[in-house]
Amino acid sequence: MRIDIITVLPELLSGPFDHSIVKRAREKGLVEIQLHPLRDFSEDKHRRVDDYPFGGEAGMVMAVQPIENAIRHLTSQRDYDEIIFTTPDAPVFNQGAANQLSTLQNLIILCGHYKGVDQRVRDHLVTMEWSIGDYVLSGGELAAAVITDSIVRILPGAISDGASALSDSFQDGLLSPPVYTRPADYKGWKVPEILLSGHAAKIDDWKHEQSLEKTRRLRPDLLGDSPN
Ligand code: ADE
Q: In the predicted model, is pLDDT for residue 223 greater than 70?
């Protein structure tokens, strides 16, 4: 898989992909992640990528020209499955979307900035838009990092214990059950007896009950109930 990220702030994205699972996935050749500074594609002599909005609102708007050049530069080299734009005014990203994107070959992620992007970019160049939650970040870079991380960690071979990604929260629509490690008794704080019992089937039942209880309590919306 290949992920090309177009951004005005490549420095912000140099760290997140150099650690842990994503770093190992890159080293194993499971994914190639490339950053493309948007300013490199500006035809303006000051390398500007934004301009004042028509209609007189506050804030700057990302212009079409540098974005189109950046996208054309990439799409002239290979076909892309999706061109994703990160922005708060979009559907909220979730595990299902990560699963689906992880099956694709080539992705572009365009990081939003300033007051927004000229609507013509969204109408004519972008194929998919995601928010990572109902709050506003300084830019779409952190959202691009979140989306990339969630995709890469579930690529086959990225996590050595393959079963572990499948038991993540949300993979079955529920939150994960609590987990424990040694010691079984830490200063009187005890691990639930059932986990020490060795009864695999009973332990599975307990985990499922815990998942359901936790989901009902913390995220009833996942069960189709209204959130508290
Ligand atoms: N850019 C700013 N806020 C964002 C959000 N919540 N999701 C995606 N991109 C963003």
A: yes
Whether the per-residue pLDDT at 162 is higher than 80: the answer is: no
pLDDT tens digit sequence for 53-66: 999 888 999 999 99
133 CB near ligand 1 (under 6 Å): yes
| Domain 167-223: CATH architecture, name and number where available | Orthogonal Bundle (1.10)
* Ligand 1: residue whose CA is nearest its atom 7: 131
Tell me the CA–centroid distance for residue 161 and ligand 1, in Å. 32
Q: Pinpoint the residues of the chain covered by CATH 1.10.1270.20.
A: 167-223
Full DSSP string of the chain: -EEEEEES-GGGGTTTTSSHHHHHHHHTTS-EEEEEEGGGG--STT---EEPPTT--SS-EE-HHHHHHHHHHHHTTS--SEEEEE-SSSPBP-HHHHHHHTT-SEEEEEEP-TT-B-HHHHHHT-SEEEBSSSS--SSSHHHHHHHHHHHHTTSTTSSSSHHHHHTSTTTTSSPPPP---S-SEETTEEPPGGGGS--HHHHHHHHHHHHHHHHHHH-GGGGTSPP-
Ligand 1 pocket member 86 (CB < 6 A) = yes
| The listed CATH number (3.40.1280.10, 3.40.630.30, 3.40.50.720, 3.40.50.2000) that belongs to domain 2-152 | 3.40.1280.10
Query: What residue ranges of the chain are covered by domains with CATH 3.40.1280.10?
Result: 2-152
